[in-house]
Structure formats: structure tokens, C-alpha cells
Amino acid sequence: MPNQNTTNESAPIIGKATIIEQLTENIVRASLPNGKIIHAHLPIKIKEKPALSIGKCILVKMNPYDFSKGRIIIDK
């Protein structure tokens, strides 16, 4: 029987961030609760773009190997 890991080490990490600067229409600079600054972007295939404003709290999905950027998650 093969060894089955119950945790996926390459699973994305989802966390809260606060927008501190809007760089372009789709890219913002955001601050994580631990003080780390990341670049977050909207998904390419999105029908309705949310209003991104400074101070707004967002959810970001990050790669566990690179915490310098993330994708903004849209909650319905």
C-alpha cells in the first residue's frame, strides 16, 4: 500500500490582506497581517471587476513557495 500524505505541501495558502496602494486597474499592493507586503492581482477571466480601494480588506490565494504575490479571491 503506498504511503498517502493527508496534507498537500503544495496547496495554495489563503489569507486576508489590506490594500495599501493601487498600482494598475487589476494589480494592488497589499499588506498581510504579519506586515509582509505583496502584489495581488485580479483573475484574468472575471466578468465583474470589484472596486479595489485603499484600505479595503481582501482575500488572497498565495503559492506556498512564493509569498511575494497572490491572486485576489472573489467571494460571491
SSE order and pairing:
Blueprint: E1 13-22, E2 27-31, E3 37-41, E4 57-63, E5 66-73
Keywords:
76 residues; mainly beta; OB fold (Dihydrolipoamide Acetyltransferase, E2P); five-stranded mixed beta barrel; globular
Give a quick precis of the structure:
This protein is mostly beta strands and 76 residues long.
Structural class call reads: mainly beta
Give the CATH superfamily: Nucleic acid-binding proteins
Terminus-to-terminus distance: 41 Å
Q: What is the H/E string? A: EEEEE
From the 3D coordinates, which CATH architecture would you assign?
Beta Barrel
Q: Strand arrangement, largest sheet?
A: 1-2-3-5-4
Q: What is the tally of helical segments?
A: 0
The CATH top-level class label: Mainly Beta
What fold name goes in the CATH topology slot? OB fold (Dihydrolipoamide Acetyltransferase, E2P)
Count of extended strands: 5
Mean pLDDT: 86
Low-confidence stretches: none
Count up the domains.
Answer: 1
Query: What's the Cα radius of gyration?
Result: 14 Å
Outline: globular
Query: What composes the largest sheet?
Result: 5 strands, mixed, barrel
Helix content: under 10%
Q: What percent strand?
A: over 45%
Task: Please provide a written account of the structure.
The chain has about 80 residues and is mainly β. It has one domain: OB fold (Dihydrolipoamide Acetyltransferase, E2P). About 0% of the residues lie in helices and about 45% in strands. It contains no helices and five strands. It has a five-stranded mixed beta barrel with strand order 1-2-3-5-4. A hairpin with a 5-residue loop joins strand 2 and strand 3. The radius of gyration is 14 Å and the shape is globular. The chain starts with 12 loop residues before the first strand and ends with a strand. The mean pLDDT is about 85.
